[in-house]
């Protein structure tokens, strides 16, 4: 199953930009548009997944007939002894010499439970102990309508009465039940089951609903018992409602130890989960962006956190990275992760400042620097081609050769791609206005679209939306933020479903000359419009998240 999942992920990544959300007649985007060349591969993988999934569901549904005692329902304080239960399991004797020859007929029918051997030894008092063994069968799998003729014949050959099979008593205790089985048995039948959580190294992170809170310590202890790798279990008790993107948590079980390490796509990250932001569910998105970035590019990571984008693009794509985060702890662990991953000195330049200031200073200065430098280098190359001496070139106060694709190709000078990553979904769009006038201070000789075009970065801006949000609504939000119409190249895609009717989206586009060269005086003209738009229902966050915007 893991291998098939990897194949699906590989197909998804190889699709690059061929995947986008498609709008229906009402302007709502409700489907993924996939490159037709990928469809046969997807069908094959999905068919295999479906077959295995059905087998797994059938097995789980049959095993569900054997559950923990009813008396544990509503338990809030864990009592392991209360989970002991004696059950009767269908069984058949099979000669040991026949196991290899016949297992094809009964292997999928085996009773599978943690700590219980499906093929058991007979008791010492049984005269056939040396020559035979006992095959325990899943009662749910012995429905005659689910057995093939070959299976029926084989089982009946060994004396199994399908209508009234012999049974074998098995004692099950707390150690034999899985985490999902225990939780389903304990929680009220009308409560949502808690069978999933996020794991960050040795930390299990839960986000329990109010109705489940009376059972939180029991849940924490069961996770600790069932997953040896987990040493700390915490529950989120508040939303991400502060400037530094972390949240309050309570310890449910285990050690109060929040510094951990995780590995993601070949990179290692150290973090203090109580002080910095980390979301393991974004692992696929991290990898997708790293794949999209061209080798040797320049990357500006505005809300870098501890480096899930910055570290791998520097490590795998040999990019020059400017990584920033306002949280001092995130900055500390970003620096630590640069060392852990042995990033070449100077490949990642880290900053601890406000995102808007980062755009208006670091990003701006580097863009201007590169444009002037490349233009000057190109001018020198052109001058040497026509026989000018270096002394004559250096004597000019400023000389400019227009940077175009044609003269770049004719020289040995190449302009790297550049990207801006803005992973702060709750408010990243509100920072887009910082790109207005960002190149207004360029020398007038360089304020030409043809010159700027190779240097303007691609933007990957993350945001939240409702399922009812249309592509036009999303583009309007960006349009209001920047005060100009969006280019046709603007793309909106689904990243993941965060909650019912709430999705994480990525808006991507390339900056355009009119925006970056606009007059600084135009900023205030659009500020009122942006504030008005931020009050609409589309942009509203829950109260505890809106506090973040003004804290």
Coarse morphology: elongated
Structure classification: alpha/beta
Helix count, DSSP H or I runs of 4 or more residues: 17
Strand content: 15-25%
- Number of strand elements: 19
Question: What is the average of the pLDDT values?
Answer: 81
Helix content: 25-40%
Strand order of the largest sheet: 15-14-13-16-17-19-18
Runs in which pLDDT lies below 50 for 5 or more consecutive residues are 16-32, 53-62, 390-399, 526-551
Counted up, domains total: 4
**Rg (CA only):** 31 Å
Q: How many angstroms does the end-to-end distance come to?
A: 46 Å
- Report on the biggest sheet: 7 strands, mixed
Please provide a written account of the structure.
The chain is of the alpha/beta class and 551 residues long. The chain folds into 4 domains: 62 residues, no CATH class; 88 residues, Alpha-Beta Plaits (2-Layer Sandwich); 79 residues, GMP Synthetase, Chain A, domain 3; 197 residues, no CATH class. 34% of the residues lie in helices and 19% in strands. It is built from 17 helices and 19 strands. The strands form 5 sheets. The protein has a 7-stranded mixed β-sheet, with helices on both faces. Strands 4-5-3-6 form a 4-stranded antiparallel β-sheet, with no helix packed on it. Helix 1 runs antiparallel to helix 2. The chain is elongated. The two termini are 46 Å apart. GO terms for molecular function: tRNA (guanine(37)-N1)-methyltransferase activity. This is tRNA (guanine(37)-N1)-methyltransferase.
């Amino acid at each position: 199953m893991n291998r098939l999942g990897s194949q699906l992920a590989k197909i998804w990544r190889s699709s690059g930009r061929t995947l986008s959300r498609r709008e229906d007649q009402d302007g709502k985007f409700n489907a993924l548009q996939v490159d037709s060349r990928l469809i046969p591969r997807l069908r094959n993988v999905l068919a295999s997944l479906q077959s295995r999934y059905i087998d797994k569901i059938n097995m789980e549904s049959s095993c569900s007939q054997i559950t923990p005692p009813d008396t544990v329902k509503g338990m809030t304080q864990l009592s392991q002894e209360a989970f002991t239960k004696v059950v009767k399991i269908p069984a058949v004797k099979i000669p040991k010499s026949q196991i290899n020859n016949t297992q094809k007929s009964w292997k999928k029918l085996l009773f599978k439970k943690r700590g219980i051997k499906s093929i058991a030894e007979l008791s010492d008092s049984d005269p056939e102990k040396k020559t035979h063994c006992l095959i325990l069968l899943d009662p749910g799998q012995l429905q005659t309508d689910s057995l093939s003729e070959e299976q029926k014949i084989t089982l009946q050959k060994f004396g199994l009465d399908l209508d009234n099979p012999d049974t074998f008593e098995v004692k099950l205790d707390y150690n034999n039940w899985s985490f999902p089985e225990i939780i389903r048995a304990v929680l009220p039948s009308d409560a949502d089951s808690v069978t999933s959580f996020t794991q960050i190294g040795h930390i299990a992170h839960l986000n329990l609903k109010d109705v489940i809170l009376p059972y939180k310590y029991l849940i924490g202890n069961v996770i600790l018992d069932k997953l040896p790798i987990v040493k700390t279990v915490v529950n989120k008790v508040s939303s991400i409602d502060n400037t530094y993107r972390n949240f309050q948590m309570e310890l449910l079980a285990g050690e109060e130890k929040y510094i951990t390490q995780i590995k993601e796509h070949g990179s290692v990250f150290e973090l203090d989960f109580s002080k910095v932001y980390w979301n393991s569910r974004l692992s696929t998105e991290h990898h997708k962006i790293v794949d999209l970035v061209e080798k040797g590019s320049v990357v500006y990571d505005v809300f870098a956190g501890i480096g899930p984008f910055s570290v791998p693009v520097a490590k795998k794509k040999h990019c020059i990275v400017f990584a920033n985060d306002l949280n001092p702890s995130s900055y500390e662990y970003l620096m630590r992760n640069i060392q852990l991953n042995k990033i070449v000195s100077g490949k990642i330049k880290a900053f601890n400042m406000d995102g808007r200031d980062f755009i208006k200073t670091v990003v701006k200065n580097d863009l201007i620097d590169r444009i002037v430098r490349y233009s000057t280098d190109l001018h020198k190359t052109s001058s040497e081609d026509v026989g000018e001496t270096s002394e004559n070139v250096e004597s000019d106060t400023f000389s400019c050769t227009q940077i175009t694709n044609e003269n770049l190709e004719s020289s040995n000078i190449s302009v790297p791609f550049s990207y801006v990553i803005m992973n702060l979904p709750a408010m990243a769009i509100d920072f887009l206005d910082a790109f207005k006038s960002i190149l207004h201070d360029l020398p007038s000789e360089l304020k030409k679209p043809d010159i700027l075009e190779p240097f303007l970065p691609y933007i990957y801006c993350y945001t939240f939306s409702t399922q009812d949000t249309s592509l036009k609504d999303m583009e309007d939000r960006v349009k209001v933020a920047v005060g100009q119409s969006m280019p046709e190249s603007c793309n909106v895609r689904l990243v993941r479903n965060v909650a019912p009717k709430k999705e994480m989206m990525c808006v991507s586009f390339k900056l355009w000359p009119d925006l970056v060269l606009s007059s600084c005086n135009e900023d205030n003209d659009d500020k009122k419009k942006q504030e008005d738009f931020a009050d609409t229902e589309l942009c509203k966050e829950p109260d505890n998240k809106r506090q973040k915007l003004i804290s």
